[in-house]
Amino acid sequence: MGFSRSAAGQVTVIKVDGQLIVGNRQELKALVQEALEAGSRKFLIDCTQTGYIDSSGLGALVTISKKVREAGGELRLAGLNDDLRSLFELTKLDSLFHIAASVDDALKGF
Questions:
Q1: pTM for this structure?
Q2: For a Cys-Cys bond, which of 39, 74, 75, 109 suits 68, CB 3.0-4.6 Å?
Q3: For residues 81-94, average pLDDT
Q4: At 72, which helix (H) or strand (E)?
């Protein structure tokens, strides 16, 4: 369980492996903040290996999205499983985020 950061061209890809919960949300925020400070403006959160996101994890994603937008950047999500996709639809967060079925789809047109 954890996070890994890589680059796909100009896009910073952060992979969430396991869960995004109260216990690790600050680590995700710190990874994005470091990349912002280094000049990154395009972010993709890869949720292909993510099984669960709690309310604090959702809050962290909203906060990160706001920070990235304020810096003139864009944040996308990819690879949400059916349960997570339903969660984003129920909370109306699917209108806040660009959500793609796969990492490759998300990277297109970034």
A1: 0.95
A2: 75
A3: 97
A4: none
